[in-house]
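Example 9 (inverse folding). The structure is encoded as follows.
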């Protein structure tokens, strides 16, 4: 049997581990693996692909990015903005199906986030045997408890905060760190807590600058003259507005950015304290994956091959209760896993004095 694999959407630490898992498990079954370059675009005739075998994938687990390349643009973009989904034109899908038939591909593994899996679902509904593998550093897919790349992104946040602590303390400054997290604040929450942030602002918890400024004043009164603030890019200002770097006009998700600078300016104006802002940006996507992300990626890749062996198409690999299983792609897409404001981890953060900007510090 010959199977295909592609990565689509943003890059993510652990993608190469998935490829390694797929190739290893397929080789064990005597199957061939075709890797399509640059996401779904590689499916367009005549096809842009490479043959993958263990000799091509040895040693790739430690590498960031993906040896296949990826894209979040092109003919197959199905996500057109917040909460909106568009179908890929049927003639484009038919071209992809022709490529798969020509190459005698018996099943296609789609590694991607919500938008890419939506495209994969459309291909499945039009007759392509598809298996989905969830990929997002935001860790915001409801149908899986964890996605590979999230742990690596959190490590990047922690490393940045460790460095910012020293300069903030030296100058008695407030430093605001803007991190990724469009709809869900998991990176800000986990990275912020692990890195010792004093204020964490999330998309799920509306915040007021008065409470943030009050928390900083309270720290000053206790002799703590430096403060670290972590804010997710999708956190909304008090008017409820999302700050955007670029409006793409219906050609995909708008590029978010600017909330860190906004919060920093407000803090300086309200407290009189010198305040600086940093945006971590794509540093969260780059670099070698952590051990956890490598293991999870390999397990996801192997499970995808096992699902093909069992003929369970239209399914997505899922991690729940420390086990890798599967769920329906249709059930998985467009179901975001968000931080719950009254969850145990938020309560733990409040109890150690972290300000989430929705109330005065110390009040439950």
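The amino acid assigned to each position is listed next.
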């Amino acid at each position: 049997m010959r199977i295909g694999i592609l990565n689509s959407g943003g890059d993510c630490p652990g993608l190469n581990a998935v490829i390694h898992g797929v190739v290893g498990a397929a080789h064990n079954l005597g199957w061939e693996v075709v890797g399509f370059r640059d996401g779904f675009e590689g499916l367009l005739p005549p096809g842009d692909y490479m043959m993958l075998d263990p000799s091509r994938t040895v040693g790739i687990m430690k590498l960031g990015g993906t040896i296949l390349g990826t894209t979040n643009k092109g003919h197959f973009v199905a996500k057109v903005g917040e909460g909106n989904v568009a179908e890929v034109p049927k003639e484009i899908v038919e071209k992809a199906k022709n490529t798969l038939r020509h190459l005698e591909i018996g099943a296609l593994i789609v590694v991607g986030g919500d938008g890419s899996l939506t495209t994969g679902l459309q291909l499945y509904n039009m007759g392509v045997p598809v298996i989905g593998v969830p990929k997002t550093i935001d860790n915001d897919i409801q149908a899986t408890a964890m996605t590979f790349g999230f742990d690596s992104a959190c490590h990047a946040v922690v490393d940045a905060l460790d460095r910012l602590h020293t300069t903030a303390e030296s100058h008695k400054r407030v430093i605001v760190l803007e991190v990724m997290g469009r709809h869900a604040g998991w990176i800000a929450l986990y990275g912020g807590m692990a890195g010792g942030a004093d204020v964490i602002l999330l998309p799920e918890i509306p915040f007021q600058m008065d409470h943030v400024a009050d928390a900083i004043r309270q720290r000053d009164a206790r002799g703590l003259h430096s403060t670290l603030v972590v804010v997710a890019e999708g956190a909304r200002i008090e008017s409820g507005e999302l700050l955007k770097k670029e409006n793409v006009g219906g050609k995909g998700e708008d590029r978010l950015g600017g909330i860190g600078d906004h919060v920093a300016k407000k803090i300086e104006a309200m407290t009189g304290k010198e305040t600086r802002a940093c945006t971590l940006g794509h540093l969260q996507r780059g670099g070698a994956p952590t051990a956890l992300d490598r293991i999870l990626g390999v397990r996801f890749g192997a499970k995808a091959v096992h699902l093909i062996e069992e003929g369970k198409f239209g399914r997505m690999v899922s991690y729940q209760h420390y086990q890798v299983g599967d769920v329906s792609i249709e059930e998985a897409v467009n179901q975001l896993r968000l931080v719950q404001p009254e969850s145990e981890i938020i309560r733990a953060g409040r109890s150690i004095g972290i300000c989430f900007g929705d109330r005065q510090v110390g009040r439950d």
